[in-house]
Every structure is written in C-alpha cells, then in structure tokens.
Write a structure and sequence with these properties.
CATH topology of the largest domain: Rossmann fold
Strand order of the largest sheet: 5-4-17-16-15-6-7
Bound molecules: iron/sulfur cluster
Strand content: 15-25%
Helix content: 25-40%
CATH architecture of the largest domain: 3-Layer(aba) Sandwich
Number of strands: 27
CATH class of the largest domain: Alpha Beta
Oligomer: single chain
Structural class: alpha/beta
C-alpha cells in the first residue's frame, strides 16, 4: 500500500488527509488524518471527491488567448512560452504608460497556497501596491482590525478552553469541519457553548445560550456584554490596570450610549439572556470567540471586530491557557512576509494604494504604523496576517478600474480567484474588467471571470503539487503536503507564472529558484534540511509558543498595551471606540437578507461543474420563513426574484422554519457551468450586494452582507435550464 500525506486546499480549512492506493491502482483514496492535532480525522465530501472535481472534462489544460470580443468565448490555444512573452510585453507597456500602480492583482490565497508570497514579491518589485483578495471580506480584514487592539490575530485554544462563543457559525461535518471536530471535542470535555445567530441551527440547539439576535446587531450584543462585564466587575482587573489603555473612556462610552435596555431594543434579546450569557463567557477562564465571517461583512464590521477583541482582552483571555493565543510566525521557516519584500515598495507607491485615505484599516496606512511594533514583538515589520493586513480596498479599486479615478488601472490579474463573484457589486466588477487593456487569469476552469480575460492560464491543483502551508502567516504551525499526481496538460504552478514573467521583465535576480521545490528548499533552509527531507520528516511542525508572551515583549501596538481606545483609529479620523451602526429596511425593501453564505457541497464559487456534488444541490436556493412565503406568494420549489438597490438575482424557494420572519438567506457564488452563458449574470449574490458608501464599513470600505434590505417576488423560471445531466 502506498501512503502519502496531503493538505486539502479545496477550501480554506486545509485539512490534513491520508492518501492511499494499492499496487497497480491509479487513484488515491483520501481519508481524514487522526494524527492531525488541528482537527483529528477531519474531511468532508468536497475533500473526498476532490479528484472528481479536478479530473474533469471542463478542466483547463492549455493556455488560451482571446481572439474574439471579450466574453464571446472565442479562444486560441497557445503555448505557455507565447503566453508569457505576450503578457510580459503588454504589461510592461501598460506600466510604462500609466505607472506600476496601474496593475491590480486579486488572489485567492487558498487555491494557490504554494505561492509563498511570490505574488506580493512580484508586485513589490514592480512597484504596485494594488493587491486585492477576497480575504478583505473574510478573515483577512479581521486580522487587520485585531491589530488595532492588541497587534496580532489570535488563534483560539480549543483544546483547553471552557467556553466557546460562535457568532453566526453553524459548524458541521461538511462545513467548517476543522472547527467542528475541535468544537465537538471541547464540548465532550465539558466546554460550554454560546451561539449568537438569528437562525436556529443544530449548533445553536446544543448551546447553553442561543442568542437569536436581529441581523447585523452583533456589535450591539458585544457592547451589551461589555456593559454587563464592566457593571458587574467581571473583568480581569489586574490585566486591565497593567496592560490596557482607554478603559475609562470605554466604560463611559458604554455607560452613556449603550445601556442594556437599548441593547435589548436593538438586538431583540431580553436582559436576562444577555446578562447570563455574558457572565458565562466572562467567568469561564479560559474562553474563546473563534473568528467568524459574520462580523467581517457588515457596515459595523470594524466596531464589531474591535468589540470582540476588547471582550477577549478585558476578560483576561489573551495568551491565557484555553483562551486566545498570539503566536507569531513559525521561526524555523523563511516566512512569506520575508519573501514578499514589502520594504522594496516605496512610501510614495504605498500611499497610492487604492482606499489608503478613505478606508485605511487594512491598507498600508495602518500597516506602516504597526510595522515597528510588529517587528519588536514578532520579528516581522509586515507580517501580512492571513494575507490581509496591507491590501487595497476592493470597491475603491474596481471604481478606479472602471473610471480611471483617481488614476488609471489598466491591467488586472485574477490569480486562482473568480473575482467577478468574489466581491460586492458584481456589475461594477464586470464594468471594471471590461475597461482594462489587459486581463489575465490563472485558473483551473473557465469561470465567469475567465471569460472576460485576454489570457487564461491553466493552474495546477493541490493534488498535483507539493505544499508548504504556514497557517497564512497567522500562527507558529507549519504543515506539508506531498504531490499525488502529475499536473495534466500544461497546467503549471503559480510560482512558474511569477518566475516566468519576472524573467521577461528584468526581475530575474529576485526569482532565482527554477521551480517551487527549489523555492521550498530555500524556505526550509534554516532547519538544515532540504525540502524533500523536511517533507519526509514533518507532516506538521509546531513552532515555539509560550503563554503570556506579552509580559516580556509588550503588545505589538504603539503603546505596547491593549488599546481599548485606539489612537491609531482616531488619527485616521475614525471613532477610537466601537459603536453601533446598521442598515435599515424601507417600504421598497422590507426584508433583510443574509448573503455570502457557504453551502456544504461547495467552496465559494467552486465545484458547480461537479455533478456528484451538484446532485444534492442542483440550483441556488433561498431560504424563506413560511410567514414571509405566505405574505409574498412564494411556493416551495418555485423561482423567486430577489432585488436590492444594487440589482436582482433569481433563486428557487425553500421554506424553512429555522429562518426567522423578515430574514431571507442567499447562498454565495452560484453559476451554472452547464448553461451556454454560465448563468453568470443571474444567480451570484454579488449581483445584489450594494457598495455605495452608506453600505460600506467606514474604516475598511467593505460592503454590508449580513442584513441587506431587499424584496422578494415570485417569478417564472428565468430560463429553460439544460439541467445537470449536461455535466460530466
Ligand atoms: S473541509 Fe473539506 S474541502 Fe475543506 S479542507 Fe477539509 S476536506 Fe478539504
């Protein structure tokens, strides 16, 4: 029996799997790895069926060059060398005409997790600050905002915790598997569970408290908890005295603006459940609030993330056993931040980063303030936590691409990212792409984004490459992955893309490694091992971490303490303390809508071509309460049109009583590869996510997705569907 260890990169969880095959067999069988302390045995159907996703007739196997109108689907197959020659020449021409900042790149870090910082390295050497990523709406922005309070993004200590607070999360065996496994183990040990979620779910039903708050009021509930914890003196007084600044200002803000009655009125919860749940969290020692995308995607995102950070801090959970670990980056590796060479980007170019002044929270404007403090505590000036701590702001960038204001952006690279579906305001993203002189994508399939490109380059999958995974620069945990198969056709590693362009654009000296294995040799060189030796020795390598490290180093903030009152935010003209803000319904849009939700069969906009996964989820379905279904004349299994100020989309109706009246649920990332136009303009949630200023978080500029005002009406099927029988 042949056995290999691999990391599934089908989604961002990175489960460690065991791959086995008998002599004479072609295919490996995948199973969860019980040696993995980060989620023993974790695997879901997407992971088990990964080979059917990648070994598929729809797979892109060769570089393609557009020969017809953009989006007309007329392509010429060309060689990788020709593609690189032409792209390099065109990109150089654009940079010469408009400046380096005229290149914007969006990258999906999990899909191309072997890039080892090479995307940013290429961009920094070229001189463009305009890196985008969907992590702006999902975890990366959380990491950036956590820095305002205590300088790093914490890793929850599931293994020793006594209380877990899940916000809008319904972890299960097919979704958030890694977290689900660790949560269930914690519950078996006796840890208590608190769930904040408007929806009823199996997770919520197990919880000691299910706080079914109104959509978009998460920050208000957190402010209510802070109120209880301060009023009842449940906070860690020694920690607050010795290690925080701004406690009095915070207490005054809470006392004056967020009395518990107001919290109850806004959240729809009663005082007893707020008080008792706050007490459970504050007195559990240790307690964790694991990251959730729910607070990444609201108009009050920054305040909500700040309020969560403050709760972690004042209850004494930072760096405490069973609490929230501020780990740094693995010391044995040459890290991604080192490889990114951010120091090579000039201050003048950093200041050109789109969104720098209007929405600075995750741009270079913030990163430069934290640089010296990160270096003092964690040894990295630009740690690029979760690849999200110095990005351009997506909506500002797409506007610049569409309008050339404040300056022209004329080249757009989408690296393993279906960008058309990855952000809000899909119509704007499309307009932006159509206004480019050069669109390039590196992909596995002809996605809606790829159809708008001039060059489509075929990328490898996680089964077809080795991987060195460093927890997205978030924790001192490194994992490795062996290669199972050769890449099909001319599919390449993302490293080859940046290397080959660099060679053609006079930057070869910065990309001396001939392939990704040589790059990994370099990355593990501090261990004294070659990559193949490291790969054999380590499935997982846990780096150094010690509790209460801040007692030696201080926190990675300007004051060296936890900044409950953020002078950095104040210096940006933002509120230094967390506050409540929401988007309200109107007569025209009387319902609220949750968008950006994952479904167990799919990750983001992926896997829609996989018939085995589609069989149990054929078409996009909106969940509606029976009360609303009756009010709006909706019928189970029939189609409905959902509209917001941004646009409209179509979904089938599913009537469910776990969704409260007044709220509908819209899943993320739907397109139909079997349809001639891919269904690209009819079903994705980005079509109905507005990104006008009133719908953006002020500090970050990310759009509101948890409680978007909308309306829903019954409608005829939007087309004659060919059905999933057309898929192979
Ligand atoms: S949850 Fe599923 S898709 Fe995600 S990494 Fe694990 S096995 Fe792969």
């Amino acid at each position: 029996m042949e056995t290999k260890h691999v990391l599934c990169a089908t989604c961002d969880i990175s489960c460690q799997l065991v791959a086995t095959r008998k002599p004479g067999e072609k295919d490996f069988t995948l199973s969860g790895d019980y040696d993995n302390p980060m989620g023993p045995g974790a695997i879901c159907a997407k992971g088990k069926l990964a080979q059917t996703t990648f070994e598929h007739p729809n797979r892109l196997l060769h570089p393609l060059k557009r020969v017809g109108e953009r989006g007309a689907g007329q392509w010429q197959q060309i060689s990788w060398e020709q593609a690189m020659d032409e792209i390099a020449e065109k990109l150089q021409g654009i940079v010469d005409r408009y400046g380096a900042e005229s290149l914007a790149v969006t990258s999906g870090p999990w899909n191309c997790s072997t890039e080892s910082g090479m995307t940013r390295r290429f961009m920094n050497i070229l001189g463009t600050p305009n890196y985008l990523s969907p992590v702006a709406l999902c975890l990366g922005n959380t990491a950036a905002v956590n820095r305002f309070t205590y300088g790093w993004m914490p890793m929850p200590d599931f293994e020793n915790t006594n209380c877990v607070v899940l916000m809008g999360h319904n972890t299960n065996s097919q979704n958030w598997v890694w977290e689900y496994v660790r949560l269930r183990l914690a519950e078996q040990r006796g840890a208590k569970l608190i769930v904040m979620d408007p929806r009823r779910s199996p997770t919520a039903e197990r919880a000691a408290f299910h706080l079914a708050l109104k959509p978009g009021t998460d920050v208000m509930l957190c402010l209510g908890w802070i109120n209880v914890i301060i009023e009842e003196q449940l906070y860690d007084k020694a920690f607050v005295r010795d290690w925080t600044v701004g406690f009095d200002a915070l207490a005054k803000r809470i006392r004056d603006d967020y009395p518990l009655q107001r919290v109850c009125d806004v959240t729809g919860l009663n005082e007893t459940e707020i008080r008792e749940s706050a007490r459970l969290y504050a007195t559990s020692k240790g307690a964790i609030i694991p990251w959730s995308p729910i607070t990444d995607q609201q108009v009050s995102s920054t305040s909500a993330i700040r309020a969560i950070s403050i709760l972690r801090a004042i209850t004494g959970n930072l760096d405490a056993p069973g609490g929230e670990m501020l780990m740094g980056i693995h010391q044995d590796l040459i890290s991604e931040p080192e490889l990114e060479l951010t120091e090579m980007l000039s201050d003048e170019q950093k200041r050109k980063q789109l969104g720098y002044d209007e929405h600075p929270a995750f741009t270079f404007k913030a990163a430069d303030i934290f640089a010296e403090h990160s270096e003092r505590v964690f040894g990295h000036r630009y740690p690029n936590l979760v690849k999200g701590t110095h990005m351009a702001v997506p909506s500002t960038t797409f506007r610049a691409m569409a309008t050339a204001e404040p300056y022209p952006v004329k080249a757009f690279f989408a690296i393993a990212n279906n960008a058309l579906f990855g952000y809000g305001n899909q119509a704007l993203v499309k307009k932006a792409m159509l206004n480019q002189e050069l669109n390039v994508c590196f992909e596995q399939f002809m996605t809606p984004t790829a159809t708008l490109c001039d060059y489509v380059l075929p990328g490898d999958s996680w089964m077809e490459r080795p991987n060195l995974m460093d927890t997205y620069n978030w924790a001192t945990i490194t994992m490795t992955s062996e290669q199972l198969y050769d890449p099909p056709g001319e599919c390449r590693n993302v490293y080859d893309l940046w290397h080959d362009l660099a060679v053609r654009m006079g930057m070869q000296e910065w990309f001396p490694w001939r392939n990704v294995e040589e790059l990994f040799d370099h990355r593990v060189s501090r261990t004294g091992l070659r990559w193949h030796e490291y790969l054999s020795k380590y499935k997982i390598q846990l780096g150094h971490y010690k509790h209460f490290n801040y007692r030696t180093t201080g926190f990675a903030t300007p004051s060296g303490k936890v900044e409950l009152y953020s002078e950095v935010l104040e210096g940006f003209g933002c509120d230094p303390l967390p506050y409540y803000r929401n988007v309200e319904t109107s007569d025209a849009f009387p319902l609220k809508m949750f968008v950006g939700l994952r479904e167990p069969q799919f990750f983001q906009s992926g896997q829609r071509h996989n018939r085995r996964l589609r069989k149990s989820n054929r078409y996009p379905r909106t969940f509606v309460n029976a009360v609303d279904a009756a009010s709006y004349g909706l019928t189970e299994g029939e189609w409905a049109k959902i509209e917001t100020v941004a646009g409209r989309l179509f979904m089938m109706v599913t009537i469910r009583d776990d969704v409260p009246p007044g709220l509908i649920r819209v899943p993320h990332g739907w397109w139909l590869p079997e349809e001639h136009d891919l269904g690209a303009d009819d079903h994705n949630d980005g079509l109905v996510i507005p990104d006008d200023q009133e719908y953006l978080d002020r500090e970050q500029g990310i759009p509101h997705m948890k409680g978007v005002p909308c309306r829903i009406t019954a409608c005829a099927p939007p087309r004659d569907f060919v059905g999933i029988g057309a898929l192979q």
